[in-house]
Amino acid sequence: MTPSVKLQRKRLKKVPSWKDVKSKKELNLGLDHNNRSGKNKSAKTMGLPCKCKMKCFDKISDNIRKTVFDEYWGLGDHVRQWDFISRCVRIKEKKVATTSSNSRRALSREYYIPINFVEIKVCKVMFLNTISVTEKIISTVSKKLNMSPVIEHDMRGKHTNRPHVIGTTVIDFIKEHIAMFPTVESHL
Ligand SMILES: [Zn+2]
After folding, report:
1. How far is the CA of 120 from the centre of ligand 1 (A)?
2. How far apart are CA 92 and CA 15, in angstroms?
C-alpha cells in the first residue's frame, strides 16, 4: 500500500453533533427519529409471531412478547442490546450423520426468549420478529463473540468446578460469562 492510498483511506475523526447523538439514542431506543441524512425512520414495532411447526406462538403470548420487545428496546444502548442478543442466541454444532471422513462442521443457531428466569426456545422468525431486529444484528453479535473470545472481566474465584471447554462449546462458555453480569446501570 502506497502512502498516498493510506492517506486517502484515513478518515477524519468526526465529532458527533448533538443532533447525531440524539438521533443515535432514539435509534437505539427504537423510537421515531430522523437519521443522519435527515430521513425519518418510524418507531420500531413488534413483528408478527411465527407460523412455524414448532408452534412457538403457542408457547409465548403476544403480551409476553411485547414485554420482551420493550425490554430489548428499553435498553437504549447498542452494547447492552448486543449483550441481550448474545444471551438469547446459542451456537450449536449440528449433528450431521456423515459417512465419509470429509465431513464439515456445521454450526447452527438456536434462539431463546428469556421470560423471567426461564428461556423458551423459539424459531428464528419468532425471535427476530419479537424484538424486531434483522438477522444482520445476530451476525454482528456472533462475529464480535468470535473475534474477541476473551471477555475482559475478572472471573477469578468463579467457575472453580468448571471443566475446560474446547471447540464449539467455547462460544456457549463466553455467553455464560456474559450472562453472569446483570445489565445494571453503571454508577454515573
Ligand atoms: Zn416458530
Report:
1. 11
2. 41
